Fold this sequence. Notes:
With 498 residues, the protein is of the alpha/beta class. It has helices at 41-58, 63-79, 81-92, 96-120, 153-167, 181-192, 207-215, 229-240, 266-275, 295-308, 327-343, 377-380, 396-404, 419-428, 460-465, 480-483, 488-495, and strands spanning 2-4, 7-9, 12-14, 21-26, 31-37, 124-128, 131-140, 143-147, 170-174, 200-202, 222-226, 245-249, 255-258, 287-291, 346-349, 367-370, 387-393, 408-409, 411-415, 433-436, 450-451, 454-455, 468-473. The protein is built from 17 helices and 23 strands. The strands form six sheets. Strands 15-16-17-14-13-19-20 form a seven-stranded mixed beta sheet, with helices on both faces. A six-stranded mixed beta sheet has the order 10-9-8-11-12-22, with helices on both faces. Helix 4 runs parallel beside helix 5.
Amino acid sequence: MLDKKNFYINGQWVSPKKPNDIKVIDPSTEEECAVISLGGVEDVNNAVVAATKAFETWAFSTKEERLKYLEALYDLYKKRWADMAKAISLEMGAPIDFSTKLQAGTGASHIKSYIRVLKEYTFEEILGDHAPNNKILHEPKGVCALITPWNWPMNQTCLKVIPAIASGCTMVLKPSEIAPLSSMILAEMIDEIKLPKGVFNLVNGDGAVTGNALTSHPDVNMISFTGSTRAGALISQNAANDFKRVSLELGGKGANIIFKDADAEAVERGALRCFRNTGQSCNAPTRMLVEKSIYDETVERVKNFANSMKVDVASKEGDHIGPVVSKTQFDKIQSLIQVGIDEGAKLVAGGTGKPDGLDKGYFVKPTAFADVNNQMQIARTEIFGPVLSIIPFETEEEAISIANDTPYGLLNFIQTQDQEKANRVARRLRSGMVDINGAGLAPDAPFGGYKHSGIGREAGKLGLEEFLEVKAVSGWNDYCLLYTSPSPRDVEESRKPE
């Protein structure tokens, strides 16, 4: 069993002030695979103190300095790609092939993307020809609390850590206590490239103690959080006390609108996007909206696809889905599948219980419901498991109405070969992202949502700017003598009688 009880604070691995050990569980076997310690208030404070001190100099580092470190990190990440993939597979149950290609792959992709963004970004600019003495400065926000989830651990960690470094911020990272191992490998890499002490700090812990101490700390200037909508609301309340900047990437209940003229692979592509990562993706299309003329055919295709999908342990090579991350998640998903049955939805594939031959591990059957209406709990709740709800519609207007009838607004999908219709529908969907015909979003496309799906954007230029404040400075250059307005004293002098 791996011993990972230390934290990374001020450029070195340190022991917790008060050990509070918990076990990391391999979801494929339900066995202990590592031990970590949960950080307390004193650990958090030490990390914030280190980040605060480091910010005094790191905030004024040059773009070239930051690029040097990010390029070194990217080179090292590629060398440790396999280690990262194995850690993610072990801690959260992603099958090793999927973990290698996508889970670990997204981390590398975001580091590479932010190197390009940083090279192109202008941190200082003149307001315009009309105001040449007005300088606009984009400056780091300060000490950042970065709180990341277990479902895409390296994707979300790199979407926070990398732009924080690139912007000149310093940070304290709290990864999910369920899946902390991958973030600790990233910390090892950051240590190896010799990033200045205190710029990056890592404290493991839970939300109730460690997360609360971090998000309420008076010297934290910004919070970037990915997780549940409920937790996001609590964090926002903490942040409001002293007006911390907040970026939240929260839940989703994406609609996948299948029009009758969809391409031949649209149905299976949509089902795969729902089931992959064992349904543990906030941007998964978990509501399949199907035009009535092809509804029965689509239900049958989904049934066949779900029944053909293999489920197996994460360590096995191959194209299958693994377990969900924990017993808590397993129990929640089982409960909601039963809710769907009780609500009167037609179970066409899967159901409660574990797949045959998998008695050990948190395995869930790929499950599909037909004849779902949008008011059912399974259509409104983010289940976060391999569960698909199929909903019929008759008109384009009805499809848009059903898709938008949700508290969430993260990613929606459209399947049609009519490009004009696709673009028209995309404009009307109330979500931060729309995918047409499986085109896929670029790594630097802004990731984030409307409504209960969050605040702010990650990835690319907009993701970098989440970590920047804007400062306007007048009188920046010689033009100030030509364009300066009269001072208050000048005005007062002009009012005096002759």
